[in-house]
Amino acid sequence: MEEQGISYSGDETYKEIDKLIKEKTRSELLIVCPYINRYYAKMLIWASGRRRVRVITSNSVVSSDAVKLIRKSRPGSGYIKAAIYFIILEAIFFFLKRYYLEVLLIPVVVVLLAIAVKRASELKKRIEVKISESRFIHEKLYISDGSAISGSANLTYSGTRKNIEHIEKTYDTDRISALKEHFNSLWNSI
Asked: How many other CB atoms are found less than 10 A from the CB of residue 2?
């Protein structure tokens, strides 16, 4: 019989929430949470590298910093940094008159820059945040294709590791579908 869900209370809710965020799947990740810190903002940016991420949050001091980080994220920046490193190497080889090494590095730089541009254009479309200005969203909901978590844990250090929180994780496909409908309704109303 397939496991329908788990209920968990304690100070280690991060294990289940982090597992859902880090799933190696192409499914969409949907989150409703009033408080998100920078650590989780970075995790969501990372998750958007493999899947579309949509977040609904409230207008709060805690979340505003995370939202700024998400909106200013530069997907593909690691490739750009690597390309800059190789450009510096090319300049060094040029001044050392090692032209054969410089010629070998040119394709590497071109490929890295092409990957960076492609990833940046792809990923910018894959993470979206909506902030409810009119009403405070206090709900906590984390949805993927294979599971969904609801409960009291915010996406903060205290909310996932320090506080005693209660979450319920479900694998029931009908329940997950209903939660996705709820998310989309909320998304469209903001």
From this structure: 6
Strand order in the sheet with 141-143: 5-10, 165-170, 148-151, 141-143, 29-32, 53-58, 127-132
pLDDT band with cut points at 50, 70 and 90 for residue 154: very high
Is 0.90 surpassed by the pTM of this model?
A: no
DSSP 37-55: -HHHHHHHHHHTTTS-EEE
Q: Which two tokens stand for residue 185?
A: 């309704």
Helix, strand, or coil (residue 6):
strand
Give the separation between CA 107 and CA 89, rounded to whole angstroms. Answer: 13
How far CA 167 is from CA of 13, 15, 149, 159, 161, in Å, comes to 7, 11, 6, 11, 13
127-132 and 53-58: which strand pairing?
Answer: parallel
Longest dimension (CA), the chain: 69
